[in-house]
Specification:
Number of strands: 11
Bound molecules: glutamic acid
Mean pLDDT: 94
Structural class: mainly alpha
Shape: elongated
CATH topology of one domain: Arc Repressor Mutant, subunit A
CATH architecture of one domain: Orthogonal Bundle
CATH class of one domain: Mainly Alpha
Number of helices: 21
Length: about 500
């Protein structure tokens, strides 16, 4: 079988975790079967669809590396790839269904339908259309339409049940009676979602439809449409819902869930893809969870996708991201960090090779335990900004209460001042001198020095930091870097 799958987002908002996982599973399935992946924009909700969302979602998908073989931007043999451009075909199918007696015009007013629905709910029944207009003779229906009456078109549901074998959920079945005659064409002549989706999928010769679990109820309806049109339906694979760790649906409140947000915060695309793949699927080799895109293509197995809900866990995503960050070399990390630093105004838009190399050193010094690029930026703040006033009162009191801590800083200052320039070698000599003069060692020696140099209780290795500060202060940067001697002097002034 020549596998053809599609990702069919509605451009009514940003791509979030759930629909990107759908895009990913489609993409992986296509790749591992040498199939074709298609991007279809489901933009029939004219009021809510926006061009900018379409652009954004394509941008997000490209960033993740989830490219498509056919789509609105690149075309293909099965276009058009925007649902709104296939309205004529949707209508043609409805005309066919009407002429074959598989569908009928319904003149019930929205108020009438609403009353009916309420009645059914009160009786404890699932709301569905009563079939009131089913038996209006077609000639009469056409006359009423001719005289300007508004009507929708409904599918005449057959008896029995709709059954299919879902590739994730297994055998699924629904009673037709429970479904009721649903709307195919709205009174304004536009296709309802299920009709548009089925007609598009058939026209695009989809072999598999992989999408969220919420669409299982639509699958029954779409299969009924295929059958009425004498078409064979594609295979379906529905993906379980993704829940928030706290339970319930994923929402904005549980942190940013749009892909654009994650990107902004410095998550790597390869980490996002890796983590999303694990939401509902696990590689066969236990414990092997850090996988690149190619490895995912090799490993992924739609047949092993879990039908119970997956839980979105930010901690785990951070862990995956950290592992992918570790796989990067210094140059790649530097390239990632530069735009953030520019945005903060820490570096000019044009940077010299020396500055570039120095950025690499800063990144390497601060990056060890960090989860995402945003954190690397936060952590490198201590190189660019120095303000002893940032120390909390408690930290200050703690410092002052330690025997000899201030003496260490004073001695450090005195010995530094004996030198014109500071480099790593001199710094080490100075520290050795301070140790000798004050009798302090270990934390008693280095903690006060760290506070004096960074006004923070933790941070990168001091040896590395000293070199960075001393090289940094000679670079042409928008905000000059304060060197070691200046920092210690400022710190002592703050203490007094
Ligand atoms: N536009 C639908 C959605 O975003 C797609 C459903 C489908 O894949 O059939 O949920």
């Amino acid at each position: 079988m020549n596998v053809r799958v599609r990702f069919a987002p509605s451009p009514t908002g940003h791509l979030h975790i759930g629909n990107v996982r759908t895009a990913l599973y489609n993409w992986l399935f296509a790749r591992q079967n040498q199939g074709v992946s298609i991007l279809r924009i489901e933009d029939t909700d004219v009021a809510r669809s926006e061009e900018r969302f379409e652009q954004q979602l394509m941008d997000d998908l490209r960033w993740l590396g989830l490219t498509w073989d056919e789509g609105p931007d690149c075309g293909g043999r099965h276009g058009p790839y925007r649902q709104s451009e296939r309205l004529d075909q949707h209508r043609e199918c409805v005309t066919r269904l009407l002429s074959e007696g598989e569908a009928y015009y319904c003149f019930c007013s929205p108020e009438e339908l609403q009353r009916e629905r309420q009645r059914q709910l009160i009786q404890g029944n699932a709301p569905r259309y009563s079939g009131k207009c089913r038996n209006i003779p077609p000639s009469e229906a056409l006359k009423r339409i001719g005289s300007g009456e508004e009507a929708v078109v409904r599918l005449k549901i057959r008896e029995g049940s709709v059954d299919f074998e879902d590739l994730v959920f297994g055998p699924l079945s629904a009673e037709c009676e429970q479904i009721g005659d649903f709307v195919l064409l709205r009174s304004d002549g536009t296709a309802a979602y299920n009709l548009a989706c089925a007609v598009d999928d058939a026209a695009m010769e989809m072999t598999h439809v992989i999408r969220g679990e919420g669409h299982i109820s639509n699958a029954y309806r779409q299969i009924l449409i295929y059958q009425a049109l004498h078409l064979s339906p594609p295979l379906f694979a529905h993906l379980s819902t993704i829940l928030a760790k706290e339970g319930g649906k994923l929402s904005k409140r549980q942190g940013a869930t749009s892909i654009a947000d994650f990107r902004q915060r410095g998550y790597l695309p390869e980490a996002m893809v890796n983590y999303l793949a694990l939401l509902g699927w696990a590689p066969s080799e236990e414990g092997r969870e850090i996988l690149g895109l190619d490895e995912l293509v090799a490993e992924f197995d739609l047949g092993r996708v879990n039908r119970s809900p997956a839980t979105f866990d930010l901690e785990k995503l951070n862990w995956v991201n950290r592992n992918h960050l570790k796989r990067l070399d210094r140059e790649s990390l530097t390239r990632l960090v530069i735009p953030y630093w520019r945005k903060r105004g820490w570096i000019h838009s044009q940077i010299s090779p020396q500055t570039q190399a120095w950025i690499g050193e800063v990144v390497e010094a601060v990056f060890s335990h960090l989860d995402k690029v945003e954190d690397i930026v936060g952590e490198s703040d201590l190189v660019f900004h120095y303000n002893p006033g940032d120390l909390s009162e408690a930290e200050l009191q703690d410092l002052l209460s330690q025997k000899n801590a201030v003496a260490v800083i004073e001695e450090f200052h005195r010995q530094l001042e004996k030198n014109e320039d500071i480099d790593l070698e001199i710094y080490r000599e100075v520290v050795a001198g301070v140790k000798k003069a004050t009798g302090q060692k270990g934390r008693g020696l280095f903690h006060p020095i760290r506070l004096a140099l960074t006004a923070r209780g933790s941070g990168p290795e001091l040896d590395k930091l000293v070199s960075l500060l001393e090289t940094g202060k000679r670079l042409d940067l928008p905000v000059p870097i304060l060197g070691v001697k200046e920092r210690v002097k400022t710190f002592l002034q703050h203490l007094r």
